[in-house]
Design goal:
The complex is a heterodimer of chains A (about 425) and B (about 400). With about 425 residues, chain A is mainly alpha-helical. Helices cover about 70% and strands about 0% of the residues of chain A. The chains are: A mainly alpha (about 425), B mainly alpha (about 400).
């Protein structure tokens, strides 16, 4: 266990939570929570497309919120860092696609092994080593590329819903300049809601329902492991975790516990395997929101992540109800709020990636690849962004690498 | 003139690739417009002749005169306008509108008002807009990967290897390797391409209110905002302090002449210009004008054999051109991204400009380059502008972590 980083304390967490709670981190926690809840819609559409029945899909999403939310309560509380937990979207798409092929129990067995692999990667300290070897500008180029789509989705509504979109975006700009006391995200949200109220939203589709996660015993098959378990392990260790850790580090939290995040993600994934769920890991977009300057004081941003976790746990049983609420609001509303919450994160990611004049080309390749959403061998863009980014940088910017220069004692990351 | 001393293979290749990219990309929109206008293929050839010759003359003339790689082309957003207007708009009306647009752009150029508009845009915002436009081409490389993996990986490898070994000739090699791969892997064939001289056809212009309101005025707007603005920005961000006045003036005068043969407004190119103004064209910025001249020469050849050239370029797979353009623009994207990242005091506004431009939003008939600058300008003024001092500091804070 010597590679697992020590945190602050869980016992004093509730008291410190109240001490550090403020309007900024509460509102960003809310936004991160809503963002995470709205992601469940992806699971629903992927599951439906794969032909899974709707009752199963609902239990899947409910487990996701419940289990990810529980881990998401403890990680930030223990480390006092903005480390919200959720699950892997590429993993979810793989999971939905593999169930009709190998069956649910075998798919969950493969999930269990993938979780174990991530746990070992964290316990043995492989993760922090990998993170040290990949130069920061390349990691941040990749992060900027992943988050870019949120930024673009924020601008897109200007085409179809120009009035509400410009009201919300302008409200954000103006209030971040002139209203220091109120978080600009809250202002933007209120402005959007005011617009929706005056134009009228159709809430007739909203209905109340309540369900809980169900226990399933996994089963092990080699086929399921090769087709789904191994790719999932690579996704968890190779792309989700580096993206999340890179983000937290990029936002100025130098002590981000790389090994613990990987190991806890692995453990969470193993637990997930018994409850119809494919993974638990750090979630880059939500981390971006919670760790952003919108979340207020630097040492208080962990509160936002705890709130996001709490929202998950509380909303889990009522997800059917939440989905009908989300579907009642127009698509641009969440897109704009998420985009606004991430603008400053994208900005600082681009600044770290490109303003340092080091690893520029590697960072650019990482950025472009991550933004393209490319998929090779079922593995998503962020993994290839890192691999190709480092490769390009090794070819063209050899002298920028730390290990090329004479060894120094400082652990510069 | 020291053209015989300054010429270089990379510069000429850059000029060629620029022509290749614009013939295989934006020209497709022009074809679409021709289809909706239901014109004969001889008339279509005349159109291509006119736009090519317009680009050739202004590109060669301006590059030699100013000693700067001025790359001109026809107005791509302008041709997009045409698609929706034909066939209600007659051919004569269209030409009349081209003439009106040329006169208006000439007036704007000669009075120097365009230079004043350009000066208002902070340099970081201009770079961010450029990066946003070029970004789609860079991402296009990796998006094509799913469709034609072997071709893209082959070209990517060739790019990495030759960029390292002979950065000067990388583009030439890439072109050759790419065509080779496209022919062997994707079965592109150059059969059926025959040599034919184009003969221009004169069109009697017809001036109407309908043509002026529906084509001429929008054409002026989209040409200035979608072409001249980013085109001048790319020259500025590449380090050329050329005033817009001579460029706008010459381009509009050329437009006036070629309009009679169906040529839509000649403008400064943006994307293809980036290929000729970057380091890939020549190490020495003072010798990159050769790329502009070469660009014009290839347009001249293209125009003379309009039918043939068009056939040739459209027979190559679209992905090949997308990947070639993307890789040719990597240098330009890097320099624009790091240029706006360096202006840390208003980085947020620059990122917003980048996002808005890259998203490709277009409304009210104006493209994302225009909206990028507008939205970024609002963000700049609301978020970063200090109201008490007029001074716009552009100090570059060196980040040494």
């Amino acid at each position: 266990m010597k590679h697992i980083e020590k945190g602050v304390s869980l016992r004093r967490a509730p008291r410190d939570f109240l001490r550090d709670l403020n309007l900024e981190n509460a509102s960003t926690g809310l936004v991160a929570g809503i963002l995470g809840l709205s992601v469940g819609v992806v699971h629903i559409s992927a599951g439906t497309a794969a032909g899974l029945d709707s009752s199963f899909i609902m239990i899947w999403v409910i487990s996701y919120l419940m289990i990810n939310g529980l881990f998401g309560l403890f990680m930030p509380a223990y480390y006092r860092l903005p480390l919200p937990m959720a699950n892997s979207i590429p993993g979810a798409l793989l999971f939905a696609a593999i169930i009709p092929v190998v069956g649910l129990e075998a798919a969950l067995g493969a999930t269990l092994i993938a979780g174990a692999i991530a746990l070992v990667a964290g316990l043995t300290g492989v993760m922090s080593l990998v993170m040290r070897l990949i130069p920061m500008p390349i990691v941040m180029g990749m992060v900027a590329g992943i988050l870019l789509s949120f930024g673009l989705n924020m601008v897109d509504p200007l085409e179809h819903a120009m009035l509400p979109a410009s009201i919300m975006i302008l409200a954000f700009f103006v209030s971040s300049r002139f209203l220091r006391k109120v978080p600009p995200l809250i202002v933007a949200m209120l402005a959007g809601m005011a617009y929706l109220m005056t134009t009228g939203v159709d809430f007739s589709g909203v209905e109340f329902s309540m369900r809980f996660p169900e226990f399933v015993v996994p089963e092990f098959t080699l086929g399921a492991f090769l087709a789904y378990g191994l790719p999932l392990a690579i996704i968890l260790v190779g792309m989700e975790t580096p993206a999340g850790i890179g983000l937290v580090k990029g936002m100025g939290y130098k002590s981000a516990p790389a090994n613990a995040i990987t190991a806890v993600g692995g453990l969470g994934t193993m637990v997930s395997a018994f409850f119809n769920l494919h993974s638990t890991c750090i979630a880059a977009p939500m981390t971006g929101v919670c760790a952003s300057p919108e979340a207020g004081r630097h040492d208080g941003r962990w509160v936002a992540a705890v709130i996001a976790g709490a929202i998950f746990v509380v909303c889990a049983p009522f997800y059917g109800f939440v989905v009908s609420l989300i579907e009642a609001t127009p698509g641009y509303f969440i897109a704009i709020i998420a985009g606004l919450a991430l603008v400053r994160v994208i900005t600082s990611a681009m600044s770290i990636a490109f303003a340092g004049k080091k690893h520029e080309m590697g960072a650019l390749f990482a950025f472009l690849i991550a933004a393209s959403g490319l998929q090779i061998l079922e593995i998503g863009a962020s993994f290839w962004a890192l691999v190709l980014g480092v490769l390009v940088s090794l070819i063209f910017e050899t002298k920028d690498f730390e290990f090329v220069r004479p060894k120094t004692n400082e652990s510069a990351v | 003139m020291n053209l015989h001393k300054d010429w270089s293979i990379p510069a000429i290749t850059a000029g060629f690739v620029a022509v290749l990219v614009s013939y295989s990309g934006p020209l497709a929109i022009f074809f679409q417009a021709a289809e909706s206008a239901e014109i004969s293929s001889a008339m279509m050839t005349s159109w291509v002749w006119a736009i090519s010759i317009g680009a050739a003359i202004s590109s060669i003339g301006l590059s030699l005169w100013l000693k700067v790689p001025v790359v001109t082309a026809w107005s791509a957003p302008g041709t997009a306008l045409l698609v929706g207007l034909f066939p209600e708009l007659s051919l004569g009306e269209a030409v009349g509108a081209y003439l009106t647009a040329a006169v208006v752009i000439f007036m704007i150029g000669v009075t120097g008002s365009f230079d004043r508009i350009i000066q208002l845009i902070p340099p970081g915002i201009a770079s961010a807009m450029m990066a946003g436009i070029l970004f789609q081409f860079g991402v296009g490389v990796f998006e094509s990967l799913a469709a034609v993996p072997a071709l893209v990986i082959g070209m990517l490898l060739a790019y990495l290897v030759f960029k390292r070994l002979t950065p000067r000739y990388c583009l030439v090699v890439l072109l050759v390797v790419g065509v080779g791969l496209a022919m062997t892997l994707e079965g592109a064939s150059l059969e059926g391409v025959t040599l034919e001289l184009a003969s221009p056809q004169f069109i009697q212009p017809e001036w109407t209110w309908h043509g002026t309101l529906s084509l001429a005025i929008p054409l002026v707007l989209v040409s200035l905002s979608g072409q001249f603005l980013p085109g001048m920005a790319i020259l500025r961000t590449s380090g050329y302090d050329t005033p817009a006045r001579p460029i706008v003036t010459v381009a509009s005068l050329t437009s006036f002449v070629t309009a009679f043969f169906g040529g839509i407004t000649t403008v400064v190119a943006a994307i293809t210009a980036a290929i000729c103004t970057s380091k890939d064209a020549h190490e020495d910025p003072n010798k990159r004008y050769v790329a502009g001249v070469a660009n014009g020469v290839f347009y001249l050849i293209g125009g003379t054999f309009a039918g043939t050239i068009v056939l040739l370029f459209t027979s190559l797979p679209g992905e090949f051109v997308a990947v070639l353009a993307g890789l040719a623009l990597i240098g330009a994207i890097t320099s624009n991204v790091s240029a706006f990242a360096a202006h840390k005091d208003y980085l947020e506004a620059s990122v917003i400009t980048f996002l808005a431009t890259a998203s490709g939003v277009s409304f009210l008939g104006l493209g994302s380059a225009f909206w990028g600058v507008m939205i970024g300008g609002v963000a700049y003024n609301v978020l970063h502008r200090r109201f008490d001092t007029r001074e716009e500091s552009s100090r570059i804070s060196d980040s040494s972590r």
